[in-house]
Design brief:
heterodimer; A: mainly alpha; Ammonium transporter fold; 2 strands; globular; B: 112 residues; alpha+beta; two-stranded antiparallel sheet; 2 helices; 37% strand
């Protein structure tokens, strides 16, 4: 099943090398490109590093010492669980299916249950299909891991795993299908999402927000100081995220080519601009440019450029990054306290809001008149409308599924939160029987 | 016997130790503590949240001395630990009822 992700990628994927014609052969045989394949394998590794230990440390350093192992374990557990679910049915539901009729606009079919029709010889574009399977697996895993940030320091471990499994099945898979599969609703609307601004970031940001609201705030939230216990971990995690993101964005070109190179460059310029914007904003508004602010800004910029990575020109990406740096700073510093929700680690503020700005901003920066790489006859107004619609549907879908998943999980586990004493003692001790620091 | 205990700024520890050495003081115990008197704390900002941190890091030094040494030790600590700014600390002198050296079982002044 050939998957088409990107307008440029479509053009590239259809350029199958011509083989010397044999008398019996009418059609060319799909052949892999070893350069593309090698790059995608490396990209996959980079995205894995983004999750373990990138996200794990980024979040881990932000929580209290008594809860760090719970974060590391929830991320590791999510990675492992989602990886298996992906192989079992995720890949099939996201990307397989004849693409006509029924629910094919919303979800694929089970023709590739347990990768039934995928062999080492199967080809997808210029890659072995298995490489594409694993590459996409890592996207599903990091998306689920991101949600952990919203429910940090207070949720039962089993409940976290169950929640993520349900949400992955009913929100991640349909949205991935709708955005990236040839049969998908948003894909056919013409929505642009190069590497997953909607599929990964808006999806996880909204889910984290809903889960955080349903769970309720941590004990002592807004009354006692709950300060990060190790910002050095957060810094290391952020650096791993940035470096890994080159695989996330440039790898989404599905080839080792010029589109990948532009995406690669944009993955430096946008976060650099966003980091500086956040730091500047913080300095002006609050007196200091903090280390946490710098790295948070960079992550916000990375989130924003994700949907635009292969569509934006270099200067467009700088502007998009800078704007997102300021907007996410505002979201985290002003919007969150205003609405009083305890999205512990700002998953919504950075991934949700950053993803929304990026997805909508993609319509602007993709305009060839602004140095972008949108199709010929590009109409910014029309594209903006499409992006907004896709974003709105994704937000609503993710929110509803996250809410239902929390309700189910609360029923299954007799409450999703750990008891108060367990929360005070710290999840490392109460949920995992361990201490990180002795 | 007296127990002299002082709260001092962490940066003054080395000066205090040297000053006490020259007074033939046989040892001391140092603990890291947090506290405040008139010195104001500071605020820390992490993304959306600002915390007022009231407690400042200090060191607590404890020394067991003979009655006639207490004044001299107290004065030496004060000279060495002073910076002239708010937050220099305080020195307390308590009556010490008994002392035992664990290794030998000696008690009283010979255990100091």
């Amino acid at each position: 099943m050939k998957f088409v992700k990107v307008l440029g990628g479509m053009a590239l994927a259809s350029l199958l090398p011509a083989l010397p014609a044999l008398a019996q052969d009418a059609a060319p045989v799909a052949v892999i490109d070893t350069g593309d394949t090698a790059w995608l394998i490396v990209s996959t590794l980079l995205v894995i590093l983004m999750t373990i230990p990138g996200v794990a440390l980024f979040y881990g350093g932000l929580v209290r010492a008594k809860n760090i192992l719970s974060i590391l374990t929830q991320v590791f557990g999510a990675f492992s669980v989602i990886a298996l679910l992906w192989v079992a049915y995720g890949y099939s539901l996201a990307f397989s299916g004849a693409g006509e009729g029924g629910f094919s606009a919303f979800i694929g079919d089970l023709s590739n249950l347990f990768l039934a029709n995928v062999t080492p010889d199967s080809v997808s574009g210029t890659l072995p299909e298995l490489v594409f399977v694993v590459f996409q697996l890592t996207f599903a895993c990091i998306t689920a891991s991101l949600v952990v940030g919203g429910i940090a320091e207070r949720m039962k471990f089993g409940a976290v795993m169950a929640f993520l499994a349900i949400w992955f099945t009913f929100s991640y898979l349909p949205i991935a299908h709708m955005v990236w599969s040839g049969a998908g609703l948003f894909f056919n609307m013409g929505a642009l999402d190069f590497a997953g601004g909607t599929v990964v970031h808006i999806n996880s940001g909204v889910a984290a927000l809903i889960a955080a609201i349903v769970l309720g705030p941590r004990l002592g939230y807004l009354k006692e100081p709950i300060a990060p216990h190790n910002l050095v971990f957060t810094y290391i995690g952020a650096c791993l995220l940035w470096v890994g993101w080159f695989g996330f964005n440039a790898g989404s070109a599905l080839g080792a080519n010029g589109v990948a190179a532009q995406a690669f460059l944009n993955t430096i310029t946008a976060p650099a601009a966003a980091a500086i914007a956040w730091a500047l904003g913080e300095k002006l508004a609050r007196g200091h440019a903090s280390a946490l602010g710098f790295v948070s800004g960079a992550v916000a910029g990375l989130v924003a450029i994700t949907p635009a990575a292969g569509f934006a020109g270099t200067f467009g990406s700088i502007v998009l990054g800078a704007v997102t740096g300021f907007v996410c700073l505002w979201a985290v510093v002003t919007l969150k306290p205003m609405l009083k929700y305890d999205d512990s680690l700002d998953v919504f503020g950075i991934h949700g809001i950053g993803g929304i700005v990026g997805a909508i901003g993609t319509a602007i920066v993709a305009d060839p008149a602004l140095g972008g790489f949108g199709a010929e006859n590009y109409a910014m107004g029309g594209q903006l409308a499409i992006q907004v619609l896709a974003v709105a549907v994704a937000i609503a879908w993710s929110a509803v599924i996250a809410f239902i998943a929390m309700v189910i999980v609360k029923a299954l586990f007799g409450g999703a939160r750990v008891p108060e004493q367990a929360e005070s003692d710290g999840l490392d001790l109460s949920s995992h029987g361990e201490r990180a620091y002795n | 016997m007296k127990l002299v205990f002082a709260i001092i700024k962490p940066s003054r520890l080395e000066e205090v130790r040297q000053a006490l050495n020259s007074l033939d003081v046989h040892g001391m115990t140092v603990t890291e503590v947090k506290g405040y008197g008139r010195q104001k704390g500071h605020s820390e900002i992490y993304r959306g949240t600002e915390y007022a941190v009231h407690f400042l890091p200090k060191l607590r030094i404890e020394i067991a001395v003979e009655d006639d040494q207490a004044e001299a030790v107290s004065a030496a600590i004060r000279d060495a630990a002073q910076t002239g700014r708010i937050g220099d600390g305080k020195i307390f002198i308590l009556d010490l009822l008994a002392v035992t050296r664990i290794r030998t079982g000696e008690t009283g002044a010979s255990a100091l």
